[in-house]
Specification:
Layout (H helix, E strand, L loop, with lengths): L2 H6 L1 H5 L5 H13 L1 H19 L7 H41 L6 H29 L9
Helix pairs in contact: 3-4
């Protein structure tokens, strides 16, 4: 077997994930190969260092900015959602009234319906475009 396989098995050995037979073969090879022994020693130091690492708990400044950002996003998202629901409700009511009105099929009724439908399409187009822009806006994290 070539050394490449034994070099990649170092972490498996250190983590104790080898069978008894694999471990025996690996230890035998490392005992005879200085390159793999050095590799295993380096990996062992890395594992020891990473085991000693402790995460520092976030400070107060981090949590303040986190909650401010979360509140801002939730507030804007909720407000925007309520706005869309309100507009949809008003338009649904207006459409119901228009369709049940005897004047709907007149020129005046159809013209008003076309204007309203045009406004709805433009509004939805702007909302959709703004939504997609906000996903890729490089300046969205910049505070003004």
């Amino acid at each position: 077997m070539g050394c490449n396989r034994f070099q990649t098995d170092g972490m498996k050995f250190l983590d104790g994930e080898m069978t008894v037979e694999e471990k025996r073969v690996y230890e035998e090879h490392v005992g005879a190969c200085d390159v793999c022994a050095s590799e295993l020693e380096d990996l062992g130091r890395i594992v020891k260092l990473t085991d000693e690492l402790r995460l520092r708990p976030p400070d107060t400044e981090f949590w303040d900015s986190y909650w401010k950002s979360l509140y801002r996003r939730t507030e804007r998202g909720g407000g925007f959602l309520l706005l869309l629901i309100g507009i949809a409700a008003v338009l649904a009511f207006a459409a119901y009234k228009a369709v049940t009105s005897p004047e709907f099929l007149t020129f005046k009724g159809l013209a008003i319906a076309a204007v309203i439908l045009g406004l709805v399409v433009v509004f939805l187009s702007v909302v959709r475009e703004r939504y997609h822009e906000s996903k890729n806006d490089p300046y969205k994290e910049v505070e003004q």
